[in-house]
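Re: that chain you flagged

S.,

Sorry for the slow reply, it's been a week of failed gels. I finally had a moment to sit down with the sequence you sent. For the record, here it is as I used it:
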Amino acid sequence: MSLKNFWPQSFDNMGRTRGIKDKKDVPTEPDGDTQDGDQAESPAVDGLDPALAKALSVMTSNIIKVIDDKLSPLVETIHKNTTEIQAASKRLDEAEARLLAVEGSAETQEPRIVELEKQVSALTESLDMAENYSRRLNIRVVGLPEDTETGQPVEFFESWLPGVLKITTKAGRIKLERAHRTLAPKPDPNRSPRAVLLRFHAFRDKQRAMEAARRVSQDGGLIYNGAKVSFYSDFSSTVIKRRKAYDAVKQRLRERGMPYAMLFPATLQVTHGSSKKRFSTPEEVRAFIESLPG
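Prediction finished late last night. Pasting the structure tokens below so you have them in one place:
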């Protein structure tokens, strides 16, 4: 830093004036080398006194050193922060580019996802239909006390069914392929018994048994060994869940004395006067009941 920039111009002029005055008062020395080198160089420092010039130089150096000591950590911090900001900015740009790529890929994949969802739904429905088809020969007997069947279950139920349902057969037996309780641990005596699954040899025999069970139900139901026994077709869990959703509206239909029937897979047919109406959801049945007078 130049002393001209550090000190005011007026102070500089004052120093020069003083130097000129001093020159007039001091006799002129003969030319030649002097023993004091500092005194020889003093006229070159803008007319300042050599001691004052040296003091100013030391002061300037000290000020610069103090400023450097104070600013160096700040400069390092700024440099560090700048580097981190640049790195973060670079990562942000990369993330933004990846996000744009993902959004573009999602837009192209969305139609395919919709199509795959339709295929999965169709396959699920087909699988459920196949499962129900495999159960078409089955009947589920609910409420029969445990250990009612003696000996071989198949032989027992082949003769038990025609007797309790009053089905006429040639030999007093109806042919079954399998008969067993549901696959669950045997419950305690004070809990509900497990259901019995019966698989018929012929679909016609299964239909006859279900028709006989409906007649018995209309006559007050079947009571066996003090327990009420019911007969149901065996369906998949999906169909059972859909049918169970109608329980509340079926109760309201019974209170009104309106006959109904559940059609496969989960359609409720309601008889109203001389007409029959079919409903695909419980909400439709509820709206129909609320629209009736009374």
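What I noticed first: Confidence is low (pLDDT under 50) at residues 1-45.

Talk soon,
D.
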